[in-house]
Amino acid sequence: MIRFFTNVWNNFKEYIVLVILILASLIILSQNKSPQVQKVRAIAFGSFATFTSIISDMFSVTDLKRENQQLRERNAELMIQISKLRKYGIINEELKDLLGFKDTANVPLIPATIISRSLSMTQNMLTLNAGRKHGVLPGMPVVNDRGFIGIVHSVSEDFSIARTLNNVDLKLTVMDERSRINGIMKWTGEELVIINIPNTFDIKIGDRIVTSGISSIVPLPLPVGIVEEFRPSETSGFSYIKVKPFVDLKPIENVFIIAEVQSKQKKDLELNFYRRQSDEIR
């Protein structure tokens, strides 16, 4: 032990003496009552207090910045969690509606989720996570609990692509549910319209439009939309009929594919008929 203290003294004696002298000076300074010494003491202690205050503020600001950063990160995490919970809530409501639709439908349904979408002005397409191995084939209708969405166009082993109502290449035979009048509905790039309806036919604003039984594309009458605008033409003899669809394509994430395929022979016959009708109108 003595050797240890001896080594410490030999190595640090200058610092030890300095500390002892400083402490002695401070003790003597604190005990001196003369005005000059008191003034020096006041200046010294004031300077020391100012210095320690600055150092304390610096550390305090650093701590506040770190705490603010942690709070911002936590707020971001909470925001993401809240967004996920809201998304899950919306999906839950959507799935509940789909389950209700599945329970009442008398046709085979294949559930699918939209994994990507191309929502251009003219070529609206949906990519679904159900393909050939799930039983999906080209020509099968895509629906949800609100109504008709589109038709499966192409299929791979695990995925499929569907043309929606907002696709210029999809022509759909529809019917006015009230008057039972049939017509061809198509997407113009801006709106859904029913063509080839003479001015004298009984169509009214607010009429419910469903898929027609005379077409083999859809095996049952599915809701499509309502007549939003009806305007007879004075030149062509055919009315302008604008349809507002029931299904908003933007928020949907889950759909059903009706596992029935249209007759190719009937499809080709109808397409040829539609082309002749369009040529006559032009």
Would you mind describing this structure in some detail?
By secondary structure, the chain is of the alpha+beta class. The protein has a domain at about 110-280: Rod shape-determining protein MreC, domain 1 (Thrombin, subunit H, Beta Barrel), CATH 2.40.10. About 40% of the residues lie in helices and about 25% in strands. The chain is built from three helices and twelve strands; from the N terminus they run ααββββββββββββα. The protein has helices at about 1-30, 35-105, 265-280; strands spanning about 110-120, 125-130, 140-145, 145-155, 160-165, 170-175, 180-185, 190-195, 210, 225-230, 240-245, 255-260. The strands form two sheets. A six-stranded antiparallel beta barrel has the order 1-2-5-4-3-12. Strands 6-7-8-11-10-9 form a six-stranded antiparallel barrel. A hairpin with an 8-residue loop joins strand 10 and strand 11 (about 240-245). The longest helix has about 70 residues, at about 35-105. The chain starts with a helix and ends with a helix. The model has no long low-confidence stretch (mean pLDDT about 75).
Give the structure's gist in a few sentences:
This protein is of the alpha+beta class. It has helices at residues 2-31, 35-104, 264-281, and strands spanning 109-118, 123-128, 141-144, 147-155, 160-167, 172-176, 182-187, 192-195, 208-211, 223-231, 240-245, 254-258. It contains 3 helices and 12 strands, in the order H-H-E-E-E-E-E-E-E-E-E-E-E-E-H.
